[in-house]
Amino acid sequence: xxxxxxxxxxxxxxxxxxxxxxxxxxxxxxxxxxxxxxxxxxxxxxxxxxxxxxxxxxxxxxxxxxxxxxxxxxxxxxxxxxxxxxxxxxxxxxxxxxxxxxxxxxxxxxxxxxxxxxxxxxxxxxxxxxxxxxxxxxxxxxxxxxxxxxxxxxxxxxxxxxxxxxxxxxxxxxxxxxxxxxxxxxxxxxxxxxxxxx
Length: 198
Ligand SMILES: [Zn+2]
Description:
The chain is of the alpha+beta class and 198 residues long. It has helices at 4-17, 27-33, 42-48, 53-60, 86-101, 124-138, 141-146, 152-159, 163-179, 184-197; strands at residues 37-41, 65-70, 75-80, 112-113, 118-120. It has a domain at 4-139: Orthogonal Bundle (Arc Repressor Mutant, subunit A), CATH 1.10.10. Helix content is 57%, strand content 11%. Helix 1 packs parallel to helix 10 and helix 3 crosses helix 4. It is globular. The termini are far apart. 33% of the residues are buried. The structure holds zinc ion.
């Protein structure tokens, strides 16, 4: 089960802490809001550890990105391959932030913490939650309504996600518009957005 309401509220709390809520979301600003989290590129990690990119990818068990969790100090390091295009990097970072915000590392029953402290999430629900988090952080449906989004191209333009992700998100947005019940969350999010954009 994906904790939709919990994730929505966590995202709203992050947005409230931003100096200004505008889209496309500035992912590095979001990372800065998490006090025990830092960011580093695969390329920089390779350089400072005199390692090859191949070994970094192997260590992270992903070509795109991963999260390093320092258990002793309760600190996170998000790592991302900056060879990827900008859209993919934004999604990867948002996805990794999702794992942190959803507390996937502390529920260690489901995740495998490698000797090196690198965490890979094997549970399918964790991946689904992190993907839902990424989609909603980058492109929240209530903001699609505010912007009067009419197509996948509109989504790509306003939220800077890949054409494939935009197509996906547009389809889900149409379903959401038809079936969702109004919540305090979406009212609060729209109010916050209007405050900065009207
Ligand atoms: Zn993941």
